[in-house]
Automatic annotation (TrEMBL):
Residues 170-197 form a coiled coil. Contains large globular domains required for ATP hydrolysis at each terminus and a third globular domain forming a flexible hinge near the middle of the molecule. These domains are separated by coiled-coil structures. It is found in: Cytoplasm. It comes from Salinarimonas soli. This is Chromosome partition protein Smc. Required for chromosome condensation and partitioning. Belongs to the SMC family. The chain holds residues 1 to 202 of 1150 of the full protein. ATP binds at residues 32-39. Homodimer.
């Protein structure tokens, strides 16, 4: 799954609608200090399902919304949309009916955020699994934050194993296993209840 376009509106310093086309090959982002290079990478991580505002260098998730500048008032909404090429049909079955996937996340001040894939409202977990299957995602080793290399060197073996699992594209299996276990537990509880009811009929 190849990422082809990133569209940002009202997110951090990107107050105006801004679109980045991700062409084949290597893409470099250059600019003076404070121009928004890290904000751009954070927009990418955010739309991929980042749930920690601390990882967004914020003191609350609403802080990702444009907070106003000298002559511009603050905004109440931020939205990031990522377009991915799914011609190889590698997306999870639920979203695998289109050649192009548009994944978007929108946050409204004090209302929290929601996600959509091709216009259909989905859970954060659906978006996280979609990217985990593609060996990328908000917490994956594919996106390297400032200071992350030294953290990796000092990391415990379990944390390092997670990086290998990301690279192998199997990180999504953990989330699926957890969901399957919850469903199994629900089915077991229902069975116990049925047995109780049947016992009452004897
Ligand atoms: P450096 O090269 O120094 O790492 P950078 O290009 O990565 O800088 P960023 O850290 O992405 O720059 O951007 C910092 C700018 O973003 C600051 O000017 C800051 O005021 C602005 N900014 C961050 N959050 C918001 C927000 N919610 N609303 C408006 N501006 C914001």
């Amino acid at each position: 799954m190849k990422l082809t376009r990133l569209r940002i509106v009202g997110f951090k310093s990107f107050v105006e609608p801004t679109e980045f086309l991700i062409e084949p090959g290597l893409t470099g982002v250059i600019g003076p200090n404070g121009c928004g290079k890290s904000n751009l990478v954070e927009a990418l991580r955010w739309v991929m399902g980042e749930s920690s505002y601390k990882n967004m260098r914020a003191s609350g998730m609403d802080d990702v919304i444009f907070a106003g500048s000298g002559h511009r008032p603050a905004r109440n909404v931020a939205e990031v949309t990522l377009t991915a090429d799914n011609a190889g049909r590698t997306a999870p079955a639920a979203f695998n009916d289109a050649d192009t996937l548009e994944i978007s996340r929108r946050i409204e001040r004090e209302q929290g955020s929601n996600y959509r894939i091709n216009g259909r409202e989905v859970r954060a977990r659906d978006v996280q699994i979609l990217f985990a299957d593609a060996a990328t995602g908000a917490r994956s080793a594919a996106l390297v934050r400032q200071g992350q290399i030294s953290e990796l060197i000092a990391a415990k073996p379990q944390a390092r194993r997670r990086i290998l699992e990301d690279a192998a594209g199997i990180a999504g299996l953990h989330a699926r296993r957890h969901e399957a276990e919850l469903r199994l537990k629900g089915a077991e509880d229902n069975l116990v209840r049925v047995e109780d009811v049947l016992g009452g009929l004897d």
